[in-house]
Design a protein that fits this description.
By secondary structure, the protein is mostly loops. It has two domains: 79 residues, Leucine-rich repeat, LRR (right-handed beta-alpha superhelix), CATH 3.80.10; 109 residues, Ribonuclease Inhibitor (Leucine-rich repeat, LRR (right-handed beta-alpha superhelix), Alpha-Beta Horseshoe), CATH 3.80.10.10. Helix content is 12%, strand content 12%. The chain contains three helices and nine strands. The protein has a nine-stranded parallel beta sheet with strand order 1-2-3-4-5-6-7-8-9, with no helix packed on it. The longest helix is centred in the first third of the chain and has 13 residues. The radius of gyration is 22 Å and the shape is elongated.
Length: 248
Amino acid sequence: MKINSIFGLFVVCFGLIPFGVSAQLLDSASLPQLRFYNTIEEALANPNDVYRLDLQKQRLSEIPAEVFQFKNLQELNLSRNKITKIPDELGNLQYLQIIDLSENRIDSIPPSFGKLVNLRRLNLSGNKIKTFVPEIGNFIELRMLDISNNDLHTISPTIGNLVHVRNLILNRNRIDSLPAEIGKMKALYYLDLWGNNVSQFPDEISKLKYSLKYIDMRVIALKSDYQDAIQQLLPNTEIYFSTGCNCN
């Protein structure tokens, strides 16, 4: 018994299991405590220790292939670059929890992106994305989704799968309606729609009348009676409207 106990302690303390190899996701308290790697070069020196990688504002036109070597990567910031495409290989980084691809030149989301089922925060704002692909509905652990300032016209019904999302940010698109499935987003707290073309809500959104606390619908031309109808669906929600118009 003593020999087994000593051997077990040796394995834990001296690393017969390689240091830096992750067998689980880090929680939201532990992940921010780890260092951010800020260049590919320094990350490649310790690839198994790379949990957080920040490559923002580096004038990248594509995601460097070296990124896909960091199998323990859980937070990736590629914002404010010139990236035009999300490669399929990104979907193989199974531990990713946080991705920031905002302020790039991306115009589509590949189906392979839907393999990132552990995502908790996703920022795709400030791109040129035209389609809300159904695969986004795979992100069942997601808490925050920002696809603002793109070129979306519709929202996939699979958004109803995102039952943990608290903040849904869709401003400055061309969205004219919301799917009935939004009523399944039972954790939704804040919905940002300003600058879209939404004129009415599905009746199912009334299922969120106790959880949904704030909606931003400014810069949307709505008659006052339309505004009243929306407010009646969500009597406990604080909704920000622009001044009602006499428009059609």
